[in-house]
Amino acid sequence: MSKPAAPRKVGDKEALAVATQIRGSAQKLNLVAGLIRGKKAGDALNILQFSTKAMAVDARKVLASAIANAENNHNLDVDALVVAEASVGKSITMKRFATRGRGKSTRILKPFSRLRIVVREQEEA
Fold first, then answer.
1. pLDDT mean across residues, the chain
2. 110 to each of 5, 103, 113, how far by Cα in Å?
3. A single GO BP annotation from the record (predicted)?
């Protein structure tokens, strides 16, 4: 006996991609995610391609994965895709230390973030 199949986390006309460990703070990643929310998928890819922000590289990979999931797994039309959701959250934080003068040390926090992108097929009106 196997477990029953898990229900879909998104709607019928939607596809999802998640990156669980993107190196950088959630605040910086959210600035990049805000650039693509509500945009067409093709336009969002172009925005991320030519963005000067370093986090745009990882966000573009996740968006490309969501588009590929929509096309290959859910048979959605790539030209009609819209970024329905781009949510950011905190992941792990690596703790390191730096030695300082007089035998002291300070903490260095190296945060990681999560990015969840949902693309939706939108009917042409």
1. 96
2. 37, 23, 10
3. translation
Instruction: Tell me how far apart the alpha carbons of residues 27 and 63 are, in angstroms, rounded to a whole number.
Output: 18
**pLDDT of amino acid 37:** 97
Say if 6 falls within a structural domain: no
Q: Cβ(60)–Cβ(114) under 8 Å?
A: no
Least Cα distance to 112 among 7, 44, 17, 25 occurs for 25
Q: How many domains is the chain partitioned into structurally?
A: 1
Euclidean distance between CA atoms 122 and 125, whole angstroms: 9
What the block records as the tokens of 41 is: 């998928």
The pLDDT of 67-89, averaged and rounded, is 96
- Residues 60, 49: contact at Cβ < 8 Å? yes
- What's the rounded Cα separation, in Å, for the pair 19 and 55? 12
Lookup: tokens for 45: 């890819």
> Rounded distance, CA 24 to CA 35, Å?
17
Residue 44 in tokens: 């969002």
